[in-house]
């Protein structure tokens, strides 16, 4: 239907930077003179080893990962990490603390309960996850195995601008939907994980960044593929890794460094979010953001269309249909919350956000 690239606001899998796609296209049939695509290379070849090294080096450079942290690539998506983290990091007889901020922490809780007692240190479920808890609301367990948070709640559009003070208790963060969108201090975390398909590359691989010593907590009788130890010892090459996904992560990290690194990426993301939220806030109440202002996500902008003092689902449906015709994809809210959502991941250009705002203003004029 579209002969050109459309404005892609998908929540995940999501937009990938055009220069990354073009580079992958250029190298697709003949990767670095091998006469093969990356997908056809042996994962034990020198060429692939270099690809893996580029991906690791790229992640380390972009996120400023300290030496005593491992950078791992694991299949099974972020959802497998919901189980792997408690399997590996739960200490016998200790609780796991979890801050309940949406669907993804609920899923993490469900898995964690299979391995340990879970203590909900705070929850905003009663407010339909429209905000994050405030620091003073947290009831942390002093000797917990770890504290689990989701740094950006993809479905409800909230994002942390602060971190819980957990002392010696490791902080574990699901960063699937805001990894590499802003600088982070890796040292504040014990373990970070992220499915690649929002900000890093294609689906099929999860990035794990972890303090290496934490891998030694795991019982040695866990299945080999479910121990972080294995991935650390074998440099993510115990078995055939998701080679193409790792390659795409390498290209994406190199692209970030080329455009000025994580601070440049953050500046772009702040500008895009500011453009969209101010269009919503200045629409005279026609569009209304659903997340509490201080907790608004830069990555996932959730909003509703209001008419006669109530959200208007029919009008939202029409908005999505008209937007699709006009070349804007992925604006329907998650099935569990409804409404509208524009995901503004790294690869979404300011130009696309400007065009979306123009469309929104026109739609409001016609239907407001
Ligand atoms: C998308 C997403 C997930 C699920 O990722 P999968 O790779 O599909 O398992 C988990 N957590 C967050 C925050 C997400 O955005």
Q: What is the class of the largest domain in the CATH system?
A: Alpha Beta
Structural class by helix and strand composition: alpha/beta
Bound molecules: pyridoxal-5'-phosphate
Helical content (DSSP H or I, runs of 4+): 25-40%
Order of helix and strand elements from N to C terminus: EHHEHEHEEEEEEEHHHEEEHEEH
**CATH architectural arrangement of the largest domain:** 3-Layer(aba) Sandwich
Main sheet overview: 7 strands, mixed
Mean pLDDT over the full residue set: 97
At the fourth CATH level, what is the homologous superfamily of the largest domain? Type I PLP-dependent aspartate aminotransferase-like (Major domain)
Helix run count: 9
The backbone outline, from C-alpha atoms, is globular
Major beta sheet, strand line-up: 2-10-9-8-5-3-4
Strand content: 15-25%
- Give the tally of β-strands: 15
C-alpha Rg (nearest Å): 21 Å
Named CATH topology of the largest domain: Aspartate Aminotransferase, domain 2
Q: Can you tell me the residue ranges where pLDDT is under 50 for at least 5 consecutive residues?
A: none
């Amino acid at each position: 239907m579209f002969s050109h690239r459309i404005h892609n606001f998908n929540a995940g899998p999501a937009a990938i930077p055009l220069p990354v796609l073009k580079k992958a296209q250029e190298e697709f049939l003949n990767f670095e003179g091998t006469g093969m695509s990356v997908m056809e290379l042996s994962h034990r070849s020198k060429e692939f080893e270099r690809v893996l090294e580029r991906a690791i080096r790229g992640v380390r450079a972009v996120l400023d990962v300290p030496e005593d942290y491992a950078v791992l690539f694991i299949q099974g998506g972020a959802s497998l990490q919901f189980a792997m983290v408690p399997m590996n990091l739960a200490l016998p007889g200790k609780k796991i603390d979890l801050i309940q901020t949406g669907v993804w922490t609920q899923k993490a809780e469900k898995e964690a309960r299979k391995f340990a007692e879970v203590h909900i240190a705070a929850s905003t479920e009663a407010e339909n996850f429209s905000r994050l808890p405030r620091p003073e609301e947290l009831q942390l367990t002093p000797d917990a195995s770890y504290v689990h948070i989701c740094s950006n709640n993809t479905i409800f559009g909230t994002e942390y601008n602060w971190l819980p003070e957990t002392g010696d208790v490791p902080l574990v963060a699901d960063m699937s939907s805001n990894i590499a969108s802003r600088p982070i201090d890796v040292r504040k975390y014990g373990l970070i994980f992220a499915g690649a398909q929002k900000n890093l590359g294609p689906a099929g691989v999860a990035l794990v960044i972890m303090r290496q010593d934490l891998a030694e907590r795991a019982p040695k009788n866990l299945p080999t593929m479910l121990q972080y130890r294995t991935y650390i010892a074998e440099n993510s090459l115990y078995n055939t890794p998701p080679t193409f996904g790792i390659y795409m992560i390498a290209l994406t990290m190199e692209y970030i460094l080329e455009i000025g690194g994580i601070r440049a990426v953050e500046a772009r993301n702040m500008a895009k979010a500011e453009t969209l939220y101010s269009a919503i806030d200045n629409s005279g109440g026609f569009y209304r953001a659903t997340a509490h202002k201080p907790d608004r996500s830069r990555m996932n902008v959730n909003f509703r269309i209001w008419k006669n003092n109530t959200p208007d689902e029919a009008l939202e449906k029409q908005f999505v249909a008209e937007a699709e015709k006009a070349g804007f994809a992925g604006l329907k809210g998650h099935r569990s919350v409804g409404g509208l959502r524009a995901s503004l991941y790294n690869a979404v250009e300011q130009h696309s956000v400007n065009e979306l705002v123009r469309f929104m203003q026109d739609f409001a004029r016609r239907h407001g």
